[in-house]
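Need the bound structure for iron/sulfur cluster, inputs here:
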Amino acid sequence: MQEFIYYNKDGIEFPLPETIFVTQSLSDIPQNEYIVSNTIGTHAELVADEIDFYIKNSQDSLANKIKNVEKLYEVNAIRFDNAKDITFNQEVSNGVLLVCDDEQKKQVLKSMVPDEFNLFHVNEDIIKDINGHIGNLTVIVDDDGEDIELRVDQIIWFDEKELGLKQSGCFDPLKSSIDDVLATIRQNITNYEYRKFTTYDKTICQYHERREEICSKCEEVCPTVAIVKDDSKKHLEFSQIDCHGCGGCVSVCPSGAIDYAPTSRNSIFEMAELYEDTHPLIVPQKMNIANLDIEIKENVLPFAIDGEKFLDESTLLTIAQISGSQLIFYTDFISKGSGDAIRIVNDIYQSKYGKDAIIVAMNEEELKLALEKVAFIENSHFNFNQDGLKKREVFSHRLQRIVSDDDLGEVKTGEHVHYGLVKVNEDKCTLCLVCVGACNVDALQADASDNTLRLNPSLCTSCGYCEVSCPEADCLTIERDVIKLTPSWFKENVLAQDELFACVECGKEFATTKSIEKIATMMGPIFASDPVKERSLYCCADCKPKIMMQNYFDQKKEGMANAR
Ligand code: SF4
Ligand code: SF4
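Answer from helper R.:
Posting the output first, comments after.
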């Protein structure tokens, strides 16, 4: 069965492969469900605007155009197959709250059909709080000193304030028009669908069930109430209905605990494999390139993505290395996380290749310049099977390839993307391994074969949980916001090592020498007058009670003998 359809009433100037059903008439389309189409209205799950953009503007040879059009369909099929963005429905009734002055209310009423909504009206200054989401909003208003709860489905708020901005179901006519807002509200009552945009792995989240808050970056950057912290349990709560799908949380998440459901990291990897030997032009959906008239030189191939904020250092490096080329990122907005990631990857490429990896174009003029400039980067191509690896592991493996055996200095990381180097004062470390238990990304490891505490710096998010968990003063510190471009950055470095201590009674090794010395230093003076107690400090858990009991009975026996 054909999964791809190409429709254009004017036809196409060159033949397309048999995998694509080509038609000039919408009425000729069989009632198949297609996966990917170049345009809407063709019974396809996914519409790829970039196909027509490429066909219209590419300077590729005819043979390459035919090959690349098929690639663009395949790329989108991969995106569709891997997407984890389930669609949900929310019932929305006709309860509407109007927040405005009397004059604005009159204007809204003029544009409404009488009684089409169950309408409430309040002035902004009595609103105290808003909870819930579209279809189920609770607005707390102050009624002469008494709190009243209003239950509504949607809100029309002129010049809406912070409280409304974060909530789904609030619309501001001053940002569009009264008619637009009323049309949206009516449409939502007929059918309101929302998507699940994020997936979450709590096992590597740096906030989840930790004693102290050391990360909540996703919640900080979320422009809505889609991610909320429950500080009593240290749990994150995700409200998909409030999520706009921008992906900002994904690019700042240090461990990769959050992934972007419509285009996951794994999906990006599989899609990128079709961009080898091309110049990928990354375009978020909202950039609307279908009608853009711009000459795109040979080998430039659009790489369409859904949200504009989710790309991180790991996904960017994946696309750059597989293509072996500089990338163009055409977007009118750069998120905090993506901004840091772009700068970091560019600094790394500058150190190695003397060129940026990513060229950002924020308008048509900049896109033209970027398209002239974009080039392959000699020896930068690299690929490996990263399927199933975590974000940090992918970045580490890819970066290691760039650094190889060189010393390329270091790059500073950013305000929103963090790397760092854990340091341990070996004299103070007792090898209690509390820090290893605290690290949920496996940057810190214990090696029983040689009694060492080890660190792979490339995996460390510099979250600092090991630092706050270490029981020794001035022992574990972190040099923050740096990536060292040297071979040792990718190896397990020994931070501390110790000999095992053998029990003075049975000879069994039971603790590290330094931990025994530490306890002996603390307790020795207290037990100084009792040689058996003092000796127990050097005994294993089995022998300690034995010698204490033996001492008790010996003393008792001695006491009885003296009494006779
Ligand atoms: S940014 Fe990532 S690691 Fe930090 S709290 Fe959010 S999900 Fe957890
Ligand atoms: S080594 Fe420490 S700072 Fe680094 S990720 Fe693990 S717990 Fe966090």
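Comments: The CA atoms of residues 403 and 467 lie 28 Å apart. The mean pLDDT is 93.
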